[in-house]
Write a structure and sequence with these properties.
This protein is an alpha/beta fold. It is 32% helix and 18% strand. It has helices at 17-30, 42-47, 61-68, 89-101, 113-128, 155-173, 193-196, 221-232, 275-287, 309-327, 378-384; strands at residues 4-9, 36-39, 51-53, 104-111, 134-139, 180-186, 211-213, 238-243, 290-295, 333-342, 345-353, 396-397, 400-401. Strand 10 (333-342) and strand 11 (345-353) form a beta hairpin. It starts with a strand and ends in a 7-residue tail after the last strand.
């Protein structure tokens, strides 16, 4: 490949998304790309002709090391839904006009389900107009809900942070001589992978969480309260993990059972927030015990001080694999991870048709959830554990992690 390439980031950030960006940048340069452009704020920024030459901002090996360790999206992000091709031809014509002006031969988009929708539409339009530009998806999401891949970069580090934070929350709740019931709300939208990571907190030094509720199983508030009342008889403190996306039998999210301000993004996703507070208030009112509602919220996305070395390494690998595939002629594909060995843990990369992945949610298999719906199986714990292993220490300056910032 002798032309230029362009890369963007989209959707929610992670602690390792920039490692994938480095994987794209470094591999493209090593394989002969003249310039590697970065879209500012994803496809939305590209439409406004906002982009940078990454070589002007990544100038040394130290910058590369810092960027790999820098959380959030270095290039900025967006939640912008491209129109259907039949309805928005002028939008696609403008995108391809810009890509042609920049002499782009390959387009890489780092993101989750919605980002893969962008790759699907752009690669379909390229075929429609007989464009030779290659379009490749690079997986990223802490939610771990992309189809056709064993797991997604970003998930392992978020799971590591959640498990560690859960252990600390459990220790905190046990200091008093009276019971405290803590409801811990975890991200993940309609998939319970991240919430399941709280089960890793249990060990010889920790009691672990008392119950775990995932969105794959309908949430019964009456049964929940009955279990709480039963457990509360022993007078001990409890920590209960719930997914932000838990729903009652009629399909409503639990947080929708109380007053809330509803925000819906361009892809029709509601902002999920408030289930822990609703349940903590209900327990407090009905049982008269002290409760706490804890939302890890954005803390779990970008805790780069708790990055998994396995995760950050795989994030770099999928970025490089996407470049390799595009340079060899692939388009309309997404890089996926395939677990080929459990002990020792080994994962390799492959590619899958983006049409099998875009807009498809991978959920926790029901057989990995206990029959009563209040915990997860050992199989699920065994699946997650290899992904949180080892650490990549931050570069510390004056007692704090140093990050690479895009100065414009």
């Amino acid at each position: 490949m002798h032309g230029n390439v362009i890369v963007g980031q989209s959707g929610g950030p992670t602690s390792v998304i920039n490692s994938s960006l480095v994987g794209v940048y470094k591999t493209a340069k090593d394989r002969g790309a003249k310039k590697v452009y970065g879209m500012l704020h994803g496809i939305k920024g590209l439409l406004d002709r906002q982009y940078v030459d990454l070589s002007e901002h990544i100038k040394s090996d130290l910058d590369i090391d810092l960027l790999k360790r820098t959380p959030s999206s270095f290039l900025g992000s967006c939640r912008f839904k491209l129109p259907e091709i039949k309805e928005g031809k002028e939008v696609y014509d403008k995108i391809f006009e810009i890509l042609t002006e920049l002499d782009i031969e390959a387009f890489f988009y780092i993101g989750g389900n919605d980002s893969m929708d962008t790759i699907k539409k752009l690669s379909d339009y390229a075929i429609l107009i007989s464009s030779d530009i290659k379009f490749m998806g690079v997986p990223k999401t802490i939610d771990n809900d992309l189809a056709c891949t064993d797991h997604t970069p970003g998930f392992g580090s978020a799971a590591k942070y959640i498990a560690a934070a859960t252990k600390e929350i459990i220790r905190d709740g046990l200091v008093y001589d009276y019971p405290v019931i803590t409801i811990l709300e975890i991200m993940g939208r309609n998939a319970g992978w991240l919430t399941a990571a709280t089960a890793l907190s249990k060990g010889e030094d920790c009691e672990g969480v008392d119950m775990i509720f995932l969105p794959e199983v309908a949430f019964d508030i009456d049964k929940f309260m009955a279990k709480i009342k039963g457990l509360n008889k022993n007078g001990k403190s409890m920590v209960i993990a719930v997914s932000e996306g838990i729903k009652v039998a009629d399909g409503r999210y639990v947080f929708e059972l109380t007053d809330h301000v509803e925000f819906v993004d361009a892809f029709g996703h509601k902002q999920l927030q408030g289930s822990a507070k609703f349940l903590a208030d209900k327990i407090s009112n009905e049982l008269g015990v002290k409760t706490r509602a804890i939302e890890l919220s954005t803390l779990q996305r970008c805790a780069s001080h708790m990055t998994s070395r396995v995760d950050i390494t795989e994030a770099f690998q999928v970025g490089g694999a996407a470049v390799k595939a595009a340079f060899e002629g692939d388009t309309g594909k997404v890089v996926v991870l395939e677990r080929v060995s459990e002990d020792p843990y080994i994962c390799t990369t492959d590619t899958q048709d983006v049409h099998k992945i875009a807009n498809v949610e991978k959920k926790v298999p029901l057989e990995w959830i206990t029959e009563n719906g209040t915990f997860v199986s050992e199989d699920l714990i065994h699946y997650i554990r290899p992904l949180i292993q080892a650490e990549l220490s931050p570069v510390m300056v004056d007692g704090l992690p140093r990050h690479l910032r895009l100065d414009l």
